[in-house]
Design a protein that fits this description.
Number of domains of chain A: 1
Radius of gyration of chain A: 17 Å
Shape of chain B: flat
CATH class of the largest domain in chain B: Mainly Beta
Largest interface: A-B, 8 and 8 residues
Structural class of chain B: alpha+beta
CATH topology of the largest domain in chain B: Immunoglobulin-like
Shape of chain A: globular
Largest sheet of chain B: 4 strands, mixed
Strand order of the largest sheet of chain A: 2-1-5-4-3-6-7
Oligomer: heterodimer
Helix content of chain A: 40-55%
Order of helices and strands of chain A: HEEEHEHEHEEH
Radius of gyration of chain B: 31 Å
Strand content of chain B: 25-35%
Order of helices and strands of chain B: HHHHEEEHEEEEE
Structural class of chain A: alpha/beta
Number of strands of chain A: 7
Chain lengths: 169, 228
């Protein structure tokens, strides 16, 4: 019985792994140069991605109507506090049409990184955002390396592993 | 399209550079190379003879020999590293030079001098105006909308001049309209425009958008200057 359970666990894990490995390559930007952008921030100055070449950059796409986005932004904020000194930069990119709602969300989120606004959705289109929250990890040379299309405890662990690997490069 | 041109240019440059690199600097190549092979075959040969020598002759001589020869590979190793470093630096310099040539070639191809038009932007002081973005229209057609980050503004305020737009225009009369967005006096949203009608001749045309503080009116001033 124990053996059967073990086997089942292994099968499920490998199945999950294969789903992850199957899902990731479908993101066409992996291995490509990250599209540059300049956006207004909800609070603070404007930001341009190319100014942060040399840092590991994490982009998190959010919306004020997405509940897990708030939890994810808080988790990302914790990781930024830990790894900022190792060369980590983070941007949250809001895809809301309503600027007032986006500003309210940005003020209430209380994160230490810039929350940018993309009402025209030009940046979210260039990053092929098809789910919220979506996180894109860019390495120090400006290449898109990983994408996470949801937020859960497991995906947070995966994100931290991938982030540490990029910071160590 | 631009990327494809760059790739083609890079290929052409590499193809033309490779034979030159093979033929021209044998002396330059030889300089670091002998250091490496001279050290490599020399070191094992010497250590090999050193390990065999102390066993046969007098023990006093053998004690001195390994000590002296033990230092030789270390110094040769350091020389190797230095040679390798030099080679890497030379390679990096070549890459930078090649990239520079490529940029110049690309610019000459895409923006020939007879049709080229370039628009620059400069800022002076900036007490009454904090620039956020600039929109440029050439002959009623929007050609660029550029958003400024705090770093870029800092560079402009330090006296930097930015090339905002580079394009092609045919000979004849044209109109340039620039819209400046930002924060004016008392942190209020501020949007102003400036326009210039100019005649494009046969040579390249250079225009400059200048943002100055007009002290008497306590207002910013926007002008477009035609570099003759």
């Amino acid at each position: 019985m124990q053996r059967l359970l073990k086997g089942l666990c292994v099968a499920l894990t490998s199945l999950g792994g294969s789903f992850v490995s199957w899902a990731e390559p479908t993101y066409a930007l992996i291995g490509q140069s990250a599209p540059d952008f300049a956006l207004h921030a909800a609070i603070g100055g404007n930001a341009r991605l190319s100014e942060h070449r040399g840092d590991v950059v994490v982009l998190s796409f959010w919306s004020s109507r997405c509940t897990p986005c708030r939890t994810q932004l808080a988790a990302l904020n914790r990781s930024l506090a830990t790894y900022r000194s190792a060369g980590l930069t983070m941007f949250g990119i809001g895809v809301d049409d309503d600027a007032v709602q986006a500003h309210d969300f940005a003020r209430s989120a209380q994160v230490s990184f810039a929350l940018l606004l993309d009402p025209a959705k030009s940046v979210s289109r260039s990053y092929q955002v098809d789910n919220l929250p979506m996180t894109v990890l860019i390495d120090r040379s400006g290449t898109v390396r990983h994408v996470l299309r949801d937020y859960s405890a497991d995906s947070e662990q995966l994100y931290l592993r991938q982030l540490r690997a990029l910071l160590n490069e | 399209m631009l990327q494809m041109t760059r790739v083609v240019l890079l290929a052409v440059l590499l193809a033309s550079a490779t034979p030159a690199a093979r033929a021209a600097p044998p002396a330059a190549r030889d300089t670091p190379t002998p250091a490496v092979p001279a050290a490599v075959p020399g070191a094992p040969g010497e250590t090999g003879s050193a390990s065999s020598t102390p066993a046969e002759p007098a023990p006093a001589a053998s004690a001195a020999a390994p000590a002296a020869e033990g230092a030789t590979p270390a110094t040769e190793g350091a020389a190797d590293t230095r040679g390798l470093d030099q080679e890497i630096q030379d390679l990096k310099k070549d890459v930078v030079d090649l990239n520079k040539d490529l940029f110049i070639l690309e610019e000459e191809l895409l923006f020939p001098a007879n049709t080229q038009v370039a628009v620059f932007l400069s800022m002076d002081i900036g007490t009454f105006f904090a620039l956020d973005s600039v929109t440029l229209k050439l002959d009623q057609r929007e050609v660029i909308n550029y958003l400024y980050t705090p770093r870029e503004l800092e560079a402009l305020l330090k006296g930097g001049v930015q090339r905002l737009y580079l394009g092609n225009l045919k000979v004849g009369p044209h109109e340039l309209v620039a819209f400046f967005n930002g924060k004016g006096p008392n942190e209020r949203a501020y949007k102003r425009g400036a326009s210039l009608r100019f005649e494009k001749g046969v040579g390249a045309k250079y225009l400059e958008l200048k943002i100055n503080d007009r002290q008497r009116k306590l207002q910013p001033e926007f002008e477009i200057k035609d570099w003759e």
